[in-house]
Amino acid sequence: RDTLNSYPNLEDIVWCQEEPLNMGAWSFVAPRLKTTLKETEQYKGHEIRYCGRNPSGAVAAGSKALHVAEETEFLRDVFHE
User: N or C: which end of the chain has fewer CB within 10 A?
Assistant: First the structure.
């Protein structure tokens, strides 16, 4: 809460993870981050946007080319490119 309050001009709060949605920390931290946002002075109405790989049955993409393509896609989403 205090760290978020120390950034007075945030427009977008993004959680980015390289692991697939169903395997990374997002499912653990999302409710905690939402609670923390409600306790901030400036970001009570803000949402945290998830950017990362789609849910998958495997941790890895299976090929370097696919890995790079997936990573490029979600990083573009993070930075609105």
Answer: C
Written as one string, the DSSP assignment of 2-17 is HHHHT-TT---EEEEE
Residue matched to tokens 């945030």: 10
Q: Residue 72 phi/psi, 5° resolution?
A: -60, -40
Provide the token pair at 71.
Answer: 């990573």
Cβ distance 4 to 38 under 8 Å?
Answer: no
Q: What are the pLDDT digits (tens) for 3-20?
A: 999 999 998 999 999 999
Q: In this model, does residue 38 exceed pLDDT 90? A: yes
Phi, psi of 16 (to 5 degrees): -120, 130
Q: Distance between CA 61 and CA 31 in Å, rounded?
A: 27
And the tokens for 50? Answer: 């998830």
The secondary element (H helix, E strand) that includes residue 50 is strand 48-53
